[in-house]
Amino acid sequence: MLVSALLTSVGINLGTCILFFTLYSILRKQPGNIYVYAPRLIAEGKSQLSDDFNLERLLPSAGWVQRAWQPSEEDLLSAAGLDGVVLMRIFIFSLRVFSFAVIVGIGILLPVNYLGNQLSIDFSDLPNKSLDIFSISNVDNGSKRLWIHFSAVYVFTGVVCYLLYYEYKHISSKRITYFYASKPQPHQFTLLVRGIPLSAGKSFNDSVESFFTEFHPSTYLSHIMVRQTNKLQNLIRDEQKLYKRLVNLKSKNPAQKKYTRDGFLGLFGRRVDIVDHHEKKLEDLQENVRREQLGVSLTGEEVPAAFVSFKSRYGSAVALHIQQSTNPTEWITEQAPEPHDVYWPFFSASFIQRWVSKLVVFVACFILTVLFLIPVVFVQGLTNLKQLEAYLPFLTGILAITFVSEIITGYLPSLILQLFLTMVPPIMKMLSSIQGYTSNSGILRSACTKVLWFTIWNIFFANVLSGSAFSQFFSLVLEPKNIPAKLAAAVPAQASFFIAYVVTSGWSSVSSELFRMIPLICDFIRRHCSSSTYDEFEVPSIPYHSEIPKILFFGLLGITYFFLAPLILPFLLAYYCIGYIIFRNQLLNVYEPKFETGGKFWPIVHTSTIFSLILMHILAFGLFGLKKLPLASSLCIPLPIVTLLFNDYCQKRFLPIFADYPAECLIKKDREDQNDPAMTEFLENLVTAYGDPSMMLMQHSSNDDGYASPLLQSREV
User: Fold this and answer.
1) How far is CA 81 from the centre of its chain?
2) Which residues contact 596 (CB under 8 A, 6 or more apart)?
3) DSSP labels for 541-562?
4) 421-461 tens-digit pLDDT
5) Per residue in 208-261, pLDDT tens?
């Protein structure tokens, strides 16, 4: 890519960012857009609609930046939970890493690269020269200046590991502090027990009661069985859809009579009032729901799974970590999620169905990865004008226009990849939902991991291998010893593409997060083209499974290209600065936490960073060999070994804290609660905390003499 093409891409994306910032600062002040830009404040009653006009509404301002900057980490913790704090700590960690990287990379490495003679470039016409003059490719083979890059790799590895250790320690301590400060939560006292054996003459319910009464008599409190409710859940969904349709019909014009026919597709049968017809259908559907609920509560099929609650956190932890049976496949225990976090559809699947689902998900991910190579190869063709002209000769005249060629090579490839990549997180979330996870937060963490590795392979490795090394892919598989050298030759060649990718997919996407174009359009349509109301207004939750992988992937690019092409570093630093302030604003004003994992996203961050460092070391080993500096290449061998040892230490030191809380914390918390009079009421409510929501009657019809108590009762001792 030429310098001029990069400047064109930077100019377009910088203009887009400024436009989004300006429009946001104006549109957020308009009363009609408050449900788009401050839905959380509306839900919490902290913001009120005001129709009073003033000129200041029409002028852009940056006051929101100061308001987003001011809250402390404790304020953010109370507003967004520990997961929100972890998201911001990723930005803080990245800012610290790449602030140091910019100082070394731009201040030292880039001038060394620029002054090299390997590429024999004439600097008289710099805008029309390749960006490779700023990369390590321009340093002469065997030059002693390469020792500067070698030293930088060592120093940078040490700095990243130190900062990574500091953040892991900080977040793990935050997790413990967050636990101590929390009120008693049902999931802290409850286990999910699966693989319940069926004894002769006993139901699953009786088996659970007799087992835990016998083997955990002093700590067992109660249990509630999971039952097959597929049909019931479908009926409730139909009921809710019909109710929303009826509310929408009544809100349009209650006085106006509208008619339909009660036959097939409303085309046949007798003519009836549409509102009365829907009300009767709703009452009939509600009666069916009630009848199905009674059937499930009395004779419904039990699933060999139950939520078992204990009188203390420590009692729950003991049951969790001790094998319950001589048969390890029976009485399998795992920590229960929060009641509102339970993913109920999972429990309707048998063991075989879950196993098949995992296999299907694996195959689907593989197919998706292969299919994604199509846009990757197409994008790589756009970055090479000569190749594009060879395949599409009729474009030769258009590509001769300088501005058009700069747009195609500098802006369009990254934009196309970003558009395709937006489809991946929803697909991965859907695949994770059928994989057997019992909680929505577990589904998000699984989807986050899938999206991250999908992005690393399809955006990084596929782009690298689709260049000069793609034709030698099979030789790399057959001869793994050649991987460092081949990657070292291919990765620097894609530096210009990834610089443009950071600018396009980083700057523009994070500023569009602030502008919220899709919600803004939907809200405009609702207000002006639809008669629906805000009665069922729902505050959105932040999509961690799409945002965290994006942040980590940019971190991988920065670490990988730190010594190869340091020109990428200031663009990355700008992305993290913009993202830090924007996501603080969104967490405070827009998003509301629906689930809390207690900071369990951070181990994903740690693993991704370690992988990025190892990849940098492999590239350094191969590159110094290609640059005819074998001693430097050999001295790079200890780097990945030491990094893996550091990772092993961190996994042993901190990871167990993210898996479970230690006995020390559980016992201290239990002792504190012994003198709390509210614990009696909490334990009484714990008995029914994990009741299936579908067993709660939702009465929507005008004849509201239904029931409000749960039909499915638990067993208590």
Assistant:
1) 15
2) 81, 82, 83, 338, 341, 441
3) ---HHHHHHHHHHHHHHHHHTT
4) 888 899 999 999 888 788 999 999 999 999 999 999 888 88
5) 999 999 999 999 999 998 887 767 777 777 777 777 777 766 665 555 556 555
